[in-house]
Amino acid sequence: MHHHLNTIAVTLAAIGLAGAQNSSWNHNLFTSSPPVYPSPETAGTGWEAALAQAEAFLANLTLEEKAGMVTGCSGPCVGNIAPIERLGFDGLCLQDGPLAIRQATYASVFPAGLTTAASWDKGLMYTRGLYMGQEFKGKGANVALGPVVGPLGRNARGGRNWEGFSPDPFLTGIAVEQTIWGMQSTGLQACVKHYIGNEQETQRNPSITKNGTTIEAVSSNIDDRTMHELYSWPFANAVRSGVASVMCSYNRVNGSYSCENSKTLNGILKEEFGFQGYVMSDWGGTHSGVPSINAGLDMDMPGTIGFFVSDNSYFGSNITTAVNNGSLSEARLDDMIKRIMTPYFHLKQNTDYPSIDPSGAIGGFFSVEPTTVQFPLGTVANVDVRANHATLIRELGSAGTVLLKNVNNALPLKAPKNIAVLGNDAGDLINGEYFDSSPYSQNAFGFEYGTLPVGGGSGTGRMSYLVDPLTAIKARAAQDGSLVQWILNNTLLSTPSGLSSLAPSPPDVCLVFLKTWAQEGLDRSTLLADWNSTAVVESVTSVCNNTIVVTHSGGLNVMPWANNPNVTAILAAHLPGTESGNSLVDILYGDVNPSGRLPYTIAKTQEDYSFADITNSTALATTTNPNAWQSDFEEGLLIDYRHFDYYNQSVQYEFGFGLSYSTFDISSLSVSNVYGGSNITSTPPPAKIIPGGNPTLWDVLYRATVTVSNTGDIAGATVPQLYLSLPQIPSEDPTPLHVLRGFEKVSLQPGQSTVVNFDLTRRDLSYWSVFQQEWIIAAGEIGVSVGLSSRDFKATSSFRVL
Ligand code: NOJ
To answer: Does the C-beta of 193 come closer than 6 Å to ligand 1?
Structure first.
């Protein structure tokens, strides 16, 4: 903690005492990031036996081998650390990504993080992580490059929001810890990414002008309170759940590149959160050697300078030189290796770990150091790791589908005689099953024909099969002898005569499938669904007064047709993975009662999100100023529902909202102090830092209890949600009016009731004080609201801690 004393003056100035609201935002306070040195050494906290093994391993390494242990090399995986045969170390194989082992054959493609968040189901989050862990391990990967909690989703148009979970840090925090627990229970290492402030794809990396000037990557300028209460919050959960590694991001944070930012790496991550594992760079995200290392970076990936550049590394032999000439301490290099090898031994990757499936050997990225590395590959190619995971994929696909509107009993379908399936998102793929190759990323709207099961880029997955909606609907409709007619051409559908081939017409029900492409490297240009979606819905509803709209989207959509009376139902199906059609049919026909809830807000118009937009402009795109790309997070804590609530703005569908085929109620809210001690201090009692930070931040101080009832006549699940109204802090930025601090998915038979408890930890009740550099429970009343969405409170109460 002594670093804080040394740097506190700098810290207070640089991280901003100015308010985060527009009126008081002072950009100049965010142009530098305070220094925090030296880099904290791992104590192997929680991993003590493994640390001893890592130390014994380290003792045998030459300096050259040490440099190799922290520098990516060419090899069979997306990222590779060279084997050391002499020591029986097979090297490390790092593979993408957050929803599948990206490029592997005979592997599952799971619902995206976004879909998983929309399920609000902790058990399914865990099982998805567990199955992904089994598949990565089965293919011989040591490290999965996932899950994603950055982007958090500040910008509604962010191109990678779907890889992560939700713009709410609490929901994302729960999702990430469940995922990591599941993944690492198999012996796989998880790598939570991208740390931190990676909220847009535009200018995520530096660029070079025609004249050769380097224009630096966008700087996410974030005040210290917002850093703690929003963006780093889920990373603390990840550290607490024992995550092996953290990937630093491409962007700059308060002026310094994330992979050489000593405040965020040494300060917040390693010191405050007590992270004991290793920080690896995003691919080509390292911009220096010794400075990055001293700022807390432990591993350079893929071991090249720049992205896709085969060149020297800032690490590699530069490390050997720097240790030999005294500019880098060997103790710091040793700490890097201990951080890398402790989770490896803790997860027992040294014993009986599967070899790398040669079919997954994509060659990764070429780098020169070391030049020729032989990785031990397995003898059997194309190992099928899918097991029975399709069952979970189908279930989670349904669970992450949100029923937003349902009038005139449109859903569930009751054996309609004449069904129309419309739109270019309804049918099968025609360009192949792998969304990280050119047919799928030619333009901002992706490919024209075929349903959208996942997004594009390194967060995608190679599908071994795909159940498209049209095929699944045909199969189900056959059971009722229904007629199924389909038109998949959106250009045709968006003209008034586009539906003239239907007969008989109008059909009993028109199912319109819309999609929204999103991919790494590109932010979305619109929040509308793609491919003339608005015109398509207009022409379908002009013919069909029972139109059900289904969206498959890599993020949120605004829905200008939501109040159209001929739109009788809306399902936001997100990105469901390979069982897409089955997951949907289960809901359409009522075999599964919808229980998904929005993990974000659907506002009325795109402009409603302009308070936190992507930083971009023609001037920026042609700038010659290396430091021009500045993204000021002026809205502070007020993103998504926190913004709409604070400004009392009406929205189309609020955060946490979702319908069921049944109805539910909540009653009998009570809140009690379960801490025992009557004197709860405003600051956390000091304690030895463990992964996750001061353990007293996780003490359960209060417990809220409600009764949840199924008041309808069919079985189903609902999601009671607890929101706190924490006190406003005098002369501080606004505290959001309500923040999510608890949720449970509850399955109930008709007429059945159950008691649900929400445990409230010290962190849940605190705000981050920039002045005290501590989590503080403020004096004043704390409001408690429990409801079925962020705007549908069924029971309220309040209590005072201080
Ligand atoms: C860059 C992406 O940002 C990261 O998420 C991914 O893991 C690496 N590329 C490797 O593909």
So the answer is: yes
